[in-house]
Amino acid sequence: MDPVRNPYAPGAGQRPPELAGRDRELEVFDVVLERIARGRPERSLVLAGLRGVGKTVLLNTLRSQAFSRRWGAGKIEARPDQSLRRPVAAALHMAIRELAPRHRVPDRIDDFLGVLKAFGQKSNPTGKLRDRWQPGIDVPAVAGRADSGDIEIDLVELFTDAAAIATDLGTGVALFIDEMQDVAPDDLSALCAACHELSQTGAPLIVVGAGLPHLPALLSAQKSYSERLFRYQRIDRLDRISADLALTAPAEREDVEFEVKALDELYEASGGYPYFVQAYGKATWDHAPRSPITAADVRVAAPEAEAELAVGFFGSRYERATPAEREYLRSMALLAPSDDMAGAVPTAEIARSLERKPASLSPARDALIKKGLIYSGERGTVAFTVPHFGRYLRSQPTE
């Protein structure tokens, strides 16, 4: 069939042609926005799940929902070893710019931008001109507000002032944080404290975070009340009906059909993970000679999809690991009962399989967690952050 008409989109954070199986999450966020608009108290949100389940796509869709209600909405992607100050300042600058044209008192906006500038400039501990933050804000920094140098105090004050702008307009502000598990512990604690403070006052500002499955545990480790502070939503693989819809709805718009057995094969191959659904769907479309697409078409196309995943999805991650870390990963793959979120492996079992003391493997484990290849959901266990990664590793020749 014509590859130009191929509707499937296996890209990082790229919205699929049919966002299937996420209606519940969209409805929940719509209720959150409506409640805040009516002055009702609401919690911030946290989306947690493996890589490839569509967290970034969902985060972007929720941001679009906020925009549609004329909220100010900024987004950042957290990175390890990076302070939150500059990214948060840039995101809130973007959010307030959305609201500024509607505000009747320009001086209020300028006052906030001065506070925002002071907050961001505290990210330059050296004081050197070359390291100074240049945000493109044409007002002078305001001294004495959100510039103490204590991230917890400063974030509370900054969020409070941003929420005040939204209150003036009868709207809200949302800060979207992708890869939230990479936020530094002190910054994560400050985020919790700021959300806690605003939730008590009913201020119209919320944080919507997305991260790996252990993100709720990281938040709980920083502030015990975080278990009640956020509304947690586990983002998982698609069920069979939703996975079929993700494939058939775009195809129908191109006057193409799938045989039931073809959908059986595609669900078996993809496991219902949205990224894999798109990858196998795209390869199958390109190989199928005509409509309807058959099970034989899927079987012919599967090796190409798997080869592409092996290079771009699995291989690129595996290449980031050192030889010692790869040995750890391969041991995990042999011991893992499954390749999904339930496939946790005891670290003691890994040590036994490698005939090493657990303490000697801690550097490899910690490095793999930092690189986002594995996570520790429960004490003494680790699991892959990438679905089917264990299956990929078991198929690779031993180095």
TrEMBL record:
- Does the record bear Transferase in its keywords? no
UniProt KW Mitochondrion keyword:
no
Q: Name one Pfam family in it.
A: AAA_16
Output the Gene3D superfamilies linked to this UniProt entry: P-loop containing nucleotide triphosphate hydrolases
Gene Ontology molecular function, alphabetical: electron transfer activity; heme binding; metal ion binding
* Stored PROSITE patterns: CYTC
Protein name per Swiss-Prot or TrEMBL? ATPase
- Tell me which residues make up the Cytochrome c domain: 167-333
Could you list this entry's UniProt keywords, alphabetically sorted. Heme, Iron, Metal-binding
- InterPro entries, per database record: AAA_16 (IPR041664), Cyt_c-like_dom (IPR009056), P-loop_NTPase (IPR027417)
Q: Could you tell me which residues belong to the region Disordered?
A: 1-20
